[in-house]
Amino acid sequence: MGNAIVDVIAKADDAFLAANGLMKNAMRLISAEEAEALYAKMGPGVEISGGSAGNTMAALASLGGKGVFIGKVAHDQLGKVYRHDIRAAGVVFDTPDLDEGKPTGSCLILVTPDGHRTMNTFLGACLDLTPDDIDAATIQSAKVVYLEGYLWDPPAAKEAFLKAASLAHAAGRKVALSLSDPFCVNRHLDSFRDLVKNHVDILFANESEIVALFGGDFDSAAAEARKNVEVAVLTRGEQGATVLVGGETYSVPAEKVEQVVDTTGAGDLFAAGFLHGYTQGRDPATCARLGAICAGEIIGHYGARPEVSLADLVKSKGL
What we know:
five-stranded mixed beta sheet, 319 residues, UDP-N-acetylmuramoyl-L-alanine:D-glutamate ligase, six-stranded mixed beta sheet, alpha/beta, 13 helices
């Protein structure tokens, strides 16, 4: 479950970010008017279907897994593009369109020469996802229900996730959450802590996100994560990833890449690799290795959808 977003990706330098008051390598929510003004200032852009959970499901399908995406688009051109793209990737997407009102959501992504991305998100139709969009049979048939933290903003979307989590646990399934961004964590700190403690089995976070959630430094925040969830998957960029399962700790290095072009979707792809391994019964270290390989593929090019068969890629790595 997540925001159905069409990404508009353009190159920019640090001076452009500073001139427009943008915090590098962070995400912020913007209005339709702000989106229009920023888009007018940006350089040439490339439109690519995105959205965090959508990216994860597309990558899961590329690995040979089976995924369903739940998210809201409008009945407009960008909505048609999004629906086509995610279905073409092999993902089931049957959430009804929003017939009137807000347009399909978009994210203006500025990528600096060092590969970091600064995201400016107009949620649009995403805000209208409701509990009515949750199909009980779909949720209860999934091994894992995965939510992106970006969705934890509109009240109706919160209700939708809590409904999905309740249905999943009633069926003996697992619930996973990506914290998505420190912005999301700080915006909803208390409710995020309650969500993680009482509704989440598998937690995905990078270093800044887990520290934002629990405070202190990485080690103390990781210790808190271990207490709150069954599995904590903590990514640390070039330092690789740490997986905490019960009293065990598993560490894997980052995948080596020739050049980091665009880090957009790195966490989404890591989650896809890990979840694919998890649902196939692989051990935690192998799951994390699959995640690292997928993340390594995505940061080598623009956009957050894989450009090669991830199933072939991991097979070439002996997995």
